[in-house]
Amino acid sequence: MAELRPDSGSFRDRGGRILHADERVFRTVMPAAAEDFEFVRSTGLIDTFIADGKLIGETRMDERVAREIDADAACVLEHPKLEFLSWPYEWPFSALKKAALFHLDLHLAALERGVTLSDATAYNVQFEGTRPVFIDHLSFRPYVDGEFWAAHRQFCEQFLNPLVLQSKVGIPFNSWYRGSLEGIPSADLNAVLPLGRKFSWNVLTHISMQARLQSASTEEDARRRLDEKKLPLVGFREILAGLRRWIQKLEPAAGRSTVWQNYPSQHSYATGEESHKRAFIAEFATIESPRLLIDLGCNTGDYSKVALEAGAGRVIGFDFDEKAADAAFRRAERDGLRFLALVMDAANPSPSMGWRQSERAGLRERAVADATLALALIHHLVIGRNLPLEQVLDWILDMAPTGVIEFVPKRDPMVQRLLRLKPDIFDDYSAAYFEWLLTRRAAIVSRQEISAHGRTLYWFRRND
Amino acid sequence: MPIHSPNRQIKQCGAPHSRGRYPGRAALVVVAMASTTSAHAYIDPGTGSILLQSLLAGVAVAIGVLRAYWHRIRSFFSSAQSGTASKAHTDTVDEEAKARSES
């Protein structure tokens, strides 16, 4: 067995933890959790969820291997490795909403068989394309008649409140969520909710009242009620079903539409240019056939779709515009694409965060792909955000051994727009310098000018 | 590299699991009661959430009761109505049959 490495994000639940050995993923089940673990399996729930693709698969290791992995464990499971982990603060609105509904459905189905979920962390939901998958097998435990939903607050903070913030206040939740990591506290959300939004039964109870009760009550009150176990199953179910009905209706506040959301229909591409670009990406994806492709600046996913149809296995797309990423997510859902669009600013990618700054890995650790696309991106970073071209290229080249980068020269109307309100201090921004930088680390497989203004696509392969 | 710790007290998972281990509902509850307190102890439910749930549960139960009564009332009226409707239908059929036999 290769060297075992404990997962840096798996430490809260003493019932077991995740260990990695090369490409393999193991989960230990500790003696304290063994009985619950067996009970849950006896209900057939785990098998059903796995068969339906709602829960990640498991293989029970034989005793010898289990002892080798953790001598103290009651048993050890192996799970298939997920190709890419995303965090809820990177999800667009529709993805968090889908994950929230998925979590509630899973919980309602579990209760049917006398099983409940011990927590409600959004990090336990991952996406395969746009399909949510639950990844924590030890979150399931026997339901005790009359018990409270211990994870209600966690559900509110990690699923409900971020959705309500965006829906009722009009602020995308991503930055706040990323800053607080465990979600948005009800008291904080309550403080920013406009008064008019509080005249709704759901907002009033789950947010305002919860926040008020939290500050006005004592632990003794809550302890007494917890011990009394007086939440009848019908009430428990109704709370879950009520939240489900409410979340189903939540939509992001309309606000003004962003430039990027409407970009594909409005931008200045002549149709010929677009078809050249599509053909180039299709050829690249056919020949390189990457298993995992990262599309930086994916917008609504036009070229991700082209790559997928031409042979890419799956695509993770990033866009700094939440609305564009959300539109891309919904398109992938509609067209059944293995494409997950995430919200991220390339000039400020997700850092490694949480406990010991390693609980939630940053983009650099996760973004190890077979290929990248960086179409109409680098001029925004170099000219729009003042990042050095050399560093931008290195960042892209570090992500994958091959890819396509589009260079947009200064005379292009888009770059002219970026320069309209700032002085042109970008003397070294030229195709010649770009090519020189690129060929220091990579070979150019193919190069094609696609517009009259000189927009050029470069298909590169890194020298390593 | 296996991970060892000095205080070993191993309790194995029931290896290749047998369905017969928890036969009835009674056993289900007993097992559940015996083993759940520690398993979810790492999560802090929050005092506000607990008090709110007591309240929401009360409301949910009340709504459930009202809904059940409402269904009962509605089904009472709809069965009464469908009773009249079917009687009316029978009457028409009878009259048609009578008319046919007379013609």
Question: What does this 3D model show about the protein?
Answer:
The complex is a heterodimer of chains A (464) and B (103). Chain A has 464 residues and is α/β, with parallel strands linked by helices. Helices cover 44% and strands 16% of the residues of chain A. Chain A has helices spanning 31-42, 45-51, 63-69, 93-112, 152-169, 174-180, 186-192, 201-216, 219-228, 233-249, 263-266, 271-288, 302-310, 322-335, 363-366, 378-384, 389-399, 413-418, 431-441; strands spanning 5-6, 18-21, 24-29, 59-60, 75-79, 115-117, 125-128, 131-134, 140-142, 292-296, 314-319, 339-343, 371-374, 402-407, 442-449, 456-462. In chain A, a hairpin with a 6-residue loop joins β15 (442-449) and β16. The model of chain A has no long low-confidence stretch (mean pLDDT 93). The longest helix of chain B has 56 residues, at 47-102. Chain B contains 2 helices and no strands. The termini of chain B are far apart. Classes of the chains: A alpha/beta (464), B mainly alpha (103). Chains A and B meet through α1, α3, α5, α8 and α9 of A and α1 and α2 of B.
Question: Could you provide a short overview of the structure?
Answer:
The complex is a heterodimer of chains A (464) and B (103). Chain A is of the alpha/beta class.
Topology summary:
The complex is a heterodimer of chains A (464) and B (103).
Chain A: E1 5-6, E2 18-21, E3 24-29, H1 31-42, H2 45-51, E4 59-60, H3 63-69, E5 75-79, H4 93-112, E6 115-117, E7 125-128, E8 131-134, E9 140-142, H5 152-169, H6 174-180, H7 186-192, H8 201-216, H9 219-228, H10 233-249, H11 263-266, H12 271-288, E10 292-296, H13 302-310, E11 314-319, H14 322-335, E12 339-343, H15 363-366, E13 371-374, H16 378-384, H17 389-399, E14 402-407, H18 413-418, H19 431-441, E15 442-449, E16 456-462
Parallel strand pairs in A: 10-11, 10-13, 11-12, 13-14
Antiparallel strand pairs in A: 1-2, 2-3, 3-5, 4-5, 6-9, 7-8, 14-16, 15-16
Helix pairs in contact in A: 4-5, 4-10, 7-8, 12-13, 17-19
Chain B: H1 25-35, H2 47-102
